[in-house]
Amino acid sequence: MQYDPIKKTLGKVFNLHPGLRALFYRLLDLLLLRSWYIRRELREWQQEAKPDAVILDAGSGFGQYVWRIAKMGANFKIVGIDLKEEQVADCNQYFSKMGLASRVKFKHGQLENLNEDSLYDLILSVDVMEHIEEDEKVMTNLYNALRSGGLLIISTPSDQGGSDVHHHDENKTVGGFIDEHVRDGYNIDDIKDKLLRAGFPEVEAYYSYGRPGNIAWKLSMKFPILTLNLSKLFFLLLPIYYLIVYPPVYLFNHIDLHTKHSKGTGLIVRARK
Questions:
Q1: Which of 91, 97, 227, 273 measures 20 to 30 Å from 4, CA to CA?
Q2: DSSP assigned state of 158
Q3: What is the number of domains present in the chain?
Q4: Per DSSP, what are the bridge partners of residue 105?
Q5: 78, 64 in Cβ contact below 8 A?
Q6: What's the CA gap between 241 and 249, in Å, rounded?
Q7: Which structural domain, as residue segments, surrounds residue 68?
Q8: d(CA 216, CA 237)
């Protein structure tokens, strides 16, 4: 399943107008269960946040979470770092158009090379760590970049099928994101141990994407992406498709968010410096 080409195509469509880009962010908030979890974590953090908090989105992508955080605090200063130069340029251009350039900046860079000391009150890392081979080095870099008392929030696949990998034979993998991920997901104890070794004295983690969340993900993301990989003509049918499937997707997302899971294909991790 090729995910990046679909994201790029959708990005081009929603970049036609700034209002469409904001609509795109809102649609992602509605559809993606990980966004539900991240928004809850951000709301909890907001209760303790300083009015002039400095935030790093480590792997900012399309800028969805930067946009969300910028709306949460009028004086928040936000930095987004991403490996893809075209996305960095695109985000800087968009946020400049929205009048946010004075407090929002995107930079091109690798988290393995991040060398900042005690700058951030919050660091967000959403579906990034599973792409990085030297993850412990990155965790140490993020620890150093946080101020004392600062919080790191990570969303990442678990080792219980979070990368949606299905082995066909020893040389091929089909139906998953193996071409994008360097690991099939984190064991919950393993990622906690890695963060403790990186210096974090306080780490907690819990499962997301239990059974309800997996049903929602298949309806809202997996099936449409598989179909779009077969034919781009399905773009024309997407609005009708989502009108039909969104009510059950919303229900399953809501149930998943408010259920404590003994296992799940996603992990939410909080590490305090």
A1: 97
A2: B
A3: 1
A4: 79
A5: no
A6: 12
A7: 17-209+262-272
A8: 19
For residue 74, the domain's CATH number is: 3.40.50.150
Give the Cα separation of 172 and 165 in Å (integer).
Answer: 11
Assess if residue 41 is contained within a domain. Answer: yes
| Other beta carbons less than 10 A from residue 30's beta carbon | 15
Tokens of 176: 């998953």
Residue with tokens 């009028």: 74
pTM for this model (two decimals): 0.89
For residue 255, tell me if it sits in a domain. no
Q: How far apart are CA 54 and CA 57, in angstroms?
A: 10
pLDDT, one tens digit per residue, over 106-149 is 999 999 999 999 999 999 999 999 999 999 999 999 999 999 99
The distance in angstroms from the start CA to the end CA of the chain is 37
Name the β-bridge partners of 158.
186
Answer for the pair 191, 198: CB distance below 8 angstroms, yes or no.
no
Q: Is residue 65 part of a domain?
A: yes
In a domain, 109, yes or no: yes
37-47 pLDDT, tens digit each: 999 999 999 99
Residue 177 has pLDDT above 60, yes or no: no
Check: CB of residue 77 under 8 Å from CB of residue 103: yes
Q: Which structure tokens are listed for 264?
A: 């799940």
Query: Where does the chain show beta strands of DSSP type E?
Result: 54-58, 77-82, 104-108, 120-126, 146-157, 166-169, 172-174, 202-208, 266-272
